[in-house]
Amino acid sequence: MQLWVRTPxxxxxxxxxxxxxxxWSRFGxxxxxxxxxxxxxxxxxxxxxxxxLIGALLAIIWQAADLFGNSSTSSTDLxxxxxxxxxxxxxxxxxxxxxxxxxxxxxxxLYVPAKPLILAxxxxxxxxxxxxxxxxxxxxxxxxxxxxxxxxxxxxDRLPISVFGLHGILAAHTVLNGSFAAxxxxxxxxxxxxxxxxxxxxLNLSGWQRYTILDWPVLKATMPGLxxxxxxxxxxxxSVVLLLGGGPNNATFEVAIFEAVRLDFDLHRAALLxxxxxxxxxxxxxxxxxxxxxxxxxxxxxxxxWTSRSFSKSTLSVGLVIMLIAYASPLLIIxxxxxxxAIIELVQTRRFVNALTTSIFVATTSAxxxxxxxxxxxFARADLVYKASENANNVIIRTVLNAPVFAYxxxxxxxxxxxxxxxxxxxxxxxxxxxxxxxxxxxxxxALPLANATLGPPVEEISAKHRKLMRSLNLGNWQRITQIExxxxxxxxxxxFALGFSFSFGDLGVIALFGTNDFTTLPWLMYRALGAYRSNxxxxxxxxxxxISVFSFYIIPKLLGGKQNA
Amino acid sequence: xxLNKLTVAALFGLASIASPAIADxxxxxxxxxxxxxxxxxxxxxxxxxxxxxxxxxxxxxxxADSSIGALRKAQLEGDTxxxxxxxGLDTSVAAEAAATExxxxxxxxxxxxxxxxxxxSEQFVPFDYGYFAFVYNKETMPNPPTSFKxxxxxxxxxxxxxxxxxxxxxxxxxxxWGVAAFGNDAxxxxxxxxxxxxxxxxxxxxxxxxxxxxxxxxxxxxxxxxSYHKIAEENDNIEAAIFRExxxxxxxxxxxxxxxxxxxxxxxxxQYLVSQEAQAIIPTTNWMFPVIELAGGLPExxxxxxxxxxxxxxxxxxxxxxxxxxxxxxxxxIK
Lengths: 566, 335
Description:
The complex is a heterodimer of chains A (566) and B (335). With 566 residues, chain A is an all-alpha fold. Chain A has a single domain, classed as Orthogonal Bundle (MetI-like fold), CATH 1.10.3720. Chain A contains 21 helices and no strands. Chain A starts with 12 loop residues before the first helix and ends in a 6-residue tail after the last helix. With 335 residues, chain B is α/β, with parallel strands linked by helices. In chain B, 41% of the residues lie in helices and 19% in strands. At the A-B interface, helix 2, helix 5, helix 10, helix 11 and helix 15 of A face helix 1, helix 2, strand 2, helix 4 and strand 6 of B.
């Protein structure tokens, strides 16, 4: 069944030839290969730049290793680590998709009060320091958590469950990523045109039919990018795995690399370990990076709510409430535990004000950078759709555009830190002074895969849908961007800015070697408080971080996202 | 908050970061240390103020993620390092640090220094020490184990949190503690304790957080940890379990780099570091024992040092040569 008008498949040879003669081929010459347009050039520059950066970071560590020449052995069983990490990350992706998909569908089919606030909450978990979320989870499900407390207050015994082990790791990752997936999926479901919904409703589609015909195609389009991002984040997840893992069996590459860098100072091994993690992750990255999003709908804002019928409505409602409680409870308890009268005193201290100011500066610049990079990359990929040539070169170009962005995620932070430090020194920069700029860059690149996964599909869809129109109007590059593409993805841009903003509040791990005394960010202040026995201060800072993050997901889309996008 | 305000805030941030400190004619003494030492809550600010009052210099603490990280940073920087002093290395990495041949002889007068165990080094000055111990809450655990053997017998009745010896100082301390107390039989001990280990965290903070949250009954920390809760929080429930087999000691050290062109200032700082004034700062900022007898005694409520016969320490050479093997054995046993 076809519920919307499908844009003609861009496959005919004649349309290909026509496009070759148009304004976009001004750089072009080859008759068969993809033309390298300005957009593509910029996109490729960024992608190759990120790729070159990764290569340079590894190479410079390798080169520095020769100076010290420590060589050591390690009992680390690499295959075991790869296997464990893959299973864990793969299951995490499945769980994130299943729970996130369900939540998004329920949200799109039900009338839910305070939807904007719920949506803001759905992204917040991901951007908090993962350790905070893990401790939030323990406050709910742990041995002395809320559930056990309630149970024991009611006269029951301590529940025989433990959050430690693989299932604990998976639970934490599902809270973190499942809620984010729900947010992204929901956004895509909102892009289904009103007309399709109304048509579907008039045809009396069942809930399941609605899912397979309307929902699944849009969800599917988002999955490769989102899945790869979540996989990589879980694969390299470090503190959660160690905290909830229940022992060295669940140890990660990061610990092995930490051992090589810090204890043994065997930089060859550190570079090799990082390279093998990267190589393994590329097996995941490259196939996903070569895919294009095939969905054909454009992100208009849906104004029509097709609510479910009574039976599935109650099922969906119950399910949604359970999911939202599961997602939100670890976060809400962070706020609950962190709100204390002492917070008034804390926010007036010089160290807090300094950390907040620095964090806002880092977050704003870093989010701007993320947005610019993500837009450039998305525009470049959209050009591949726009020109609609289906040759093999396109697949290669698409891979080259996508892969480095993901690859950055596969780099262990301690290796990034070491590499950036050596690179800064090689370039003759004063490491004390450039620290903050490295943080901005490092955070922007860390948020980029998420931004890419959010922005890529809609921008490509615009080209697919409005290709003919844009061509017939003979729009130039700039006009295409300002008059067609940007207005249509304004909402996504606002969301990405909020994402980048909250994401980049500033983990300073990457500049551990630069020296961090002159500036501190809020997450760093929180870690310091934890390390100095001040768990109350740490709890309060965590609550503040969460509130800021929810607030920015709530307010930034309102500020930047245009009128209809509350 | 409007966008404009956000921009202003951002620019404000930029300005405050970009404006360099006012140039000072005084020489700068740069000290690389671990982040916790140099942070507002640590001893750094107090020591800086104290030494600056007499040295006619500027003291600049630079915090790295760990003390070994501070050493690695200096090593990577080589001859061009700004560091004059590396502070915070401990007895478990002293051999490794000495082997880099980066450190000069300290030349400080340590006659006032009184450690619970003999420790002498040409290059390093000890400035505080502590004993590794399991910390518990006496409200929820009225009968803590009094020895490793007792702990080993508790199996699933108790849950403890440890730190990874590859990434955490106490984690490494635990492994060395076992070896110092049991020698080759340590393997057996670790195997017996394995069922009680709930998790092995990356750093001290996470494990201690698990303890404070009530997820574990005991956490590997220091005998001085309860002092924080007594003095800063007026909470008397947190105690350290004292084990019959004795406790492994961690001595924190500072050393001057040969490459420093401020040798005199740096030596002066090491001497200051073991002075009454500096040592009085240590207990309630770093929550470790001072290395000299304080004129005013330890703060009220602070832990007391253990007797010499309760103190364990492996010598630097043994630790340097065998640490990796010990760690591997430990992991084999607790898997």
